[in-house]
Amino acid sequence: MTQPIYTMVRNADWRAAEAAGAYAGSADDRRDGFLHFSTAAQLRASAAKHRAGERDLLLVEVDPAALGQALRWEPAGSRPGLFPHLYGSLPLSAVRAVTPLPLGADGAHVFPPGID
Fold first, then answer.
1. Are 81 and 43 in contact (CB under 8 A)?
2. Are 5 and 62 in contact (CB under 8 A)?
3. How many CB atoms lie under 10 A from the CB of residue 98?
4. Per DSSP, what are the bridge partners of residue 85?
């Protein structure tokens, strides 16, 4: 089984994606020309950098094998390693799970078990 990749989506945006049958990305994704994803090891740092203190988020777990050649692994600025970027919409058929991503008492997001 391929290791999943993740994106953090605002609840209202995800509901619109469900109605449309695909997720076209956030305003930031559309500006950059691709959907931003993270591996489990990259996710906490991505949340702290890009979604700090943001409520009403969902954690979307995706099967990267279902995305084909539209998925590329690329550097992300000064951050180490390669990050998964999807050049196209996310088909709902590639989604393994969608779970709430609440904030803890310390203001940081509380991730499900298995996220490093």
1. no
2. yes
3. 17
4. 36, 72
Q: Give per-residue pLDDT as tens, 2-25.
A: 899 999 999 999 999 999 999 999
Question: Phi and psi of 86, rounded to 5°?
Answer: -105, 120
Q: Where are the domains of the chain?
A: 5-101
Fold of the domain built from segment(s) 5-101: ADP-ribosylation fold (3.20.170)
SS3 43: helix
Q: Contact at 8 Å (CB) between 19 and 92?
A: no
Q: Which residues pair with 71 in a beta bridge?
A: 86
Q: What's the pTM value of the predicted model, to 2 decimals?
A: 0.93
**Calpha distance 21→93 (Å, rounded):** 9
List CB contacts of 15: < 8 A, sequence separation 6 or more.
none
Contact 8, 47 (CB under 8 A): yes
